Amino acid sequence: MSSPGITNEAETPQFRAASDAGTFELKSPATRQPVALVSEATVEDTDAAVAAAKAAFPAWSALSPNDRGAYMMKLAELLLESQEELAHLEANSMGRPVSGYWDAKVAAQKLQYFATAGWDNHGQTSLHTPGFLNMTLKQPFGVVAAIIPWNVPVYFFINKMGPALAAGNTIVIKSSEKAPLTSAKVAALIQKAGFPPGVVNVLSGHGHISGSALSHHMDVRMITFTGSGRTGRLIQQAAAKSNLKNVLFELGGKSPAVIFGDADLDRAAKETANSLQFNSGQVCMANSRVYVHSSISDQFISLFKEKFQAITPGDPTQPHVTHGPQADEIQFNTIKKYIELGKRDGKLALGGDEIAGHAGYFIEPTVFLETPEDAPIMKEEIFGPVVNINVFDSEEEVIRMVNDSEYGLYASVYTRDIERAMRFAKSMEAGSVGINCTSPTGAFDMPFGGFKASGIGREGIHYSMDCYLETKTVLMRI
Ligand code: NAD
């Protein structure tokens, strides 16, 4: 199979190979066998995609919100029809089990919202300056670039494209080299939905080539990125070195969950285990640091281990499988490296090895205990089914440990004491706080984003749009 490079500015949107005909091989992480040859977008291809988006911008931004929305409504329909195929493409490229695939449905629901949300982009008027009628106008940036990760690709594709287009921008989206197949399929659906050429341009390839070219591009006025802090820093440097493009960043996490003695322990153990089981722990907000009160620590740890190891590993395309492989060899080796560091610094209480009997990159659900707070597995993102559970005695002590992190994406607390819950909601340094719930619990109409090094800006149906619009002040003497 070969995958598309970009759609361009020609009469009809089209797929094309890389300008130098370059490709890279994609392997199934479940079998380690090749599944696709994918076009590697060059700098020249990236320039062509940006030029196509720039050419399409005047006509697209001049459309009414209704006309822009009609294309998005059609695409939402096509996404829903293609759910099964998208689930299988993801299973084959990054190992996500089809049993837990909700991305296309949620992406379609978001797109349906953004298809009508363009109507809400308006400014304000003011008569407060004597002799003047003043106003603000909300206007698109022009060309927006989006760079997405591999863990929930279709969701991130649409979560960035929807508000960018509804605001009147055109867009160039670069998929992840670890999961390019669903973005290629969505590009085909965009073509089928009849979007005008150049409005959406999809690049496949590696970050240091097309990703870096987009980040440095002088015609890209805003860049929206979901991925690691390491790459976020490179993109921000590129933005600073080029045209100081606006940035919207959703980055990594090291999310804590705090369990008190008065909590519903069964629920707390089930949900904190699920937080690390989903997507084999490859989730930005997974609660990879659990803190349990000394009064119930033995009971909680035993419940947690029982629930965490209750998985069905195997071929992610099979509907009964709940635990897929890690996304690729790099990811697999990184997790194994952290497991060795965990064995050095803490006490292994569950797992700690590859899952035997599988050809792919499978890792056992792994629990460490009593790891010092300054150890690497407590400070750095592992992005796998690995957790550390530490025991605490007082609120002050645990708040200090929770907040002693450069990350601040999601934090949760399990307690029946409402005052304590609210003290934690106020004190925990995180963009989202769960009270008697944990990640991946979220809400459509609530903002999502990170404190500290976990991000810049917020996404969400009422929050994304503003990030894709400039605000202009108009002063009119009357
Ligand atoms: P990554 O940073 O390695 O890659 C993300 C994207 O950036 C890919 O498309 C990659 O090709 C591109 N990229 C790599 N180098 C680049 C460069 N020099 N310039 C421009 N682009 C470049 O991240 P990943 O491994 O794909 O995803 C995992 C990370 O994403 C984790 O840190 C996770 O926490 C984070 N994440 C965050 C959220 C969130 O909402 N906060 C959601 C999902 C994932």
Task: Explain what the structure shows.
This protein is an alpha/beta fold. Helix 1 packs across helix 7 and helix 9 crosses helix 10. The strands form four sheets. A seven-stranded mixed sheet has the order 12-13-14-11-10-15-16, with helices on both faces. It has a six-stranded mixed sheet with strand order 7-6-5-8-9-17, sandwiched between helices. The protein is built from 15 helices and 18 strands. The chain folds into two domains: 253 residues, Aldehyde Dehydrogenase, Chain A, domain 1 (3-Layer(aba) Sandwich), CATH 3.40.605.10; 197 residues, 3-Layer(aba) Sandwich (Aldehyde Dehydrogenase, Chain A, domain 2).
Key features of this structure:
single chain; 478 residues; alpha/beta; Aldehyde Dehydrogenase, Chain A, domain 1; Aldehyde Dehydrogenase, Chain A, domain 2; 2 domains; 7-stranded mixed beta sheet; 6-stranded mixed beta sheet; 15 helices; disordered N terminus; binds nicotinamide-adenine-dinucleotide
Task: Give a brief description.
By secondary structure, this protein is of the alpha/beta class.
E-strand count:
18
Number of helical stretches of at least 4 residues = 15
Shape: globular
Radius of gyration: 23 Å
CATH superfamily of the largest domain: Aldehyde Dehydrogenase, Chain A, domain 1
Largest sheet: 7 strands, mixed
Helix content: 25-40%
Work out the count of structural domains: 2
Bound molecules: nicotinamide-adenine-dinucleotide
The CATH C-level class name of the largest domain: Alpha Beta
The fold-level CATH name of the largest domain is Aldehyde Dehydrogenase, Chain A, domain 1
Strand content of the residues, in percent? 15-25%
Question: Taking strands numbered 1, 2, ... along the chain, how are they ordered across the largest sheet?
Answer: 12-13-14-11-10-15-16
- Tell me which oligomeric state these chains represent: single chain
Ends apart, CA distance between termini: 64 Å
* Low-confidence runs: 1-10
